Amino acid sequence: MLLEGSTIEKHNEQRLRRHKLKLASLQDEFPETEQIIRQIEAFQVAIPSWALGTGGTRFGRFSEGGEPRSLEEKMEDVGLLNQLNRASGAISLHIPWDVPQDPAAIRQLAQEYGLSFDAVNSNTFQDQPQQALSYKFGSLQHVDKAVRKQAIDHNIEVIKHGVELGSKAITVWLSDGSCFPGQLNFRGAFERTLESLQEIYGALPADWKIFIEYKAFEPNFYSMTVGDWGQSLLYASKLGPKAYTLVDLGHHLPNANIEQIVALLLMEGKLAGFHFNDSKYGDDDLTVGSINPYQLFLIFNELVEGMNARNMNHAKDLGWMIDASHNVKDPLEDLIQSVEAILIAYAQALLIDTTVLKQAQAVNDVVRCQEILQAAYRTDLRPLIAEARFRKGGTLEPLELFRSEAIRNTLIKKRGEKTVATGL
Ligand code: RM4
Ligand code: MN
Ligand code: MN
Hints:
Blueprint lengths: L4 H25 L3 H10 L4 E2 L7 E2 L2 E2 L9 H15 L4 E3 L10 H11 L2 E2 L2 E2 L23 H21 L3 E5 L3 E2 L7 H17 L6 E5 L9 E2 L4 H11 L3 E6 L9 H10 L3 E6 L16 H17 L9 E4 L8 H21 L2 H9 L3 H12 L4 H10 L6 H7 L2 H9 L9
Helix pairs in contact: 1-13, 2-10, 2-13, 3-4, 5-6, 8-9, 9-10, 11-12
This protein binds beta-L-rhamnopyranose and manganese (II) ion (2 copies).
The site of one manganese (II) ion (MN) has 5 residues, from loops.
């Protein structure tokens, strides 16, 4: 379902006066507001096709109902989300959870919803019903060449699906590793994985990239073959210029300084982009900005400074994607909150006066440095995000409209209470 234009107009009309007042106060205080609004308008965050249904843990799954039953319905949900916030104009597909059976029809549908296709994702962490060989002991690292070949072929297949839809990158996340000391020869696992990745790399079209995602633990709990940014960077460097390291915020050990990792990957020209989420303990996949919005802001501070230093286009030169799971929230409401949190952190980072910060750093004025960062972080820039949405035809308050129009009820009526979306 898409909303009638008049529904959005009515919603905005009722809120416009208050919104303009708040906006005027920011415009009065900061001369750069217009520039920030334009940068927010250009910024898009891709939605993962596997995050439109209810998530769960191994202890259970409690659905909201009305989950999308097909890729077409998932695209419908992202189309709706984008209609509300005008910042979710891309979808990232996970294969084989979401195989585009009729690529021409899927492309056509994407055009109708104003969506493009972000990176495609391969899956060699689960065994599929028709699959010949098992990934129980890994995929690209496997000691058996035949298993490695099966996993390589799958990745090449995923690239083909992506080519048909206009994607420009493949994200490879491997669950490969070991659960017990002695199970695996680390060097052997690394070398076999590299060799497999080299074959996949060889199948990339000229204008494609490969993103190597790392993760500290789970499902393997003793070692992960791509366990941290050092290992990922090693693979990416050995593979060549089309290979980059992807940072999923939940994939670090507790208290890792992610912003420093980001700064250095960016410096090396090897940062692929992000899987945004938030976490308290591990790969919790919680709503972006729900636990530690300050960390998100610090990451964006490094991104803005580092991208400017390399003359990069903020909106286009890195992959921006959400990778979250919605266990107790409506998935669409959760995604609205996540996109908003990302845009707020980005806007606040844009507000930092880099010249003044550098001056303070140069004289070791530690107090001043903290004040500069926190002054930006403590400024409520939500009116700028709302204004960017409004200018692009979106809603001033997406969450409010989602609720007042009872969108989940409509989806339940249309799709049913007990539908299950593919994904984790
Ligand atoms: C992993 C990782 C991958 C995602 C899967 C579903 O933990 O974050 O990016 O594709 O989960
Ligand atoms: Mn991820
Ligand atoms: Mn993850």
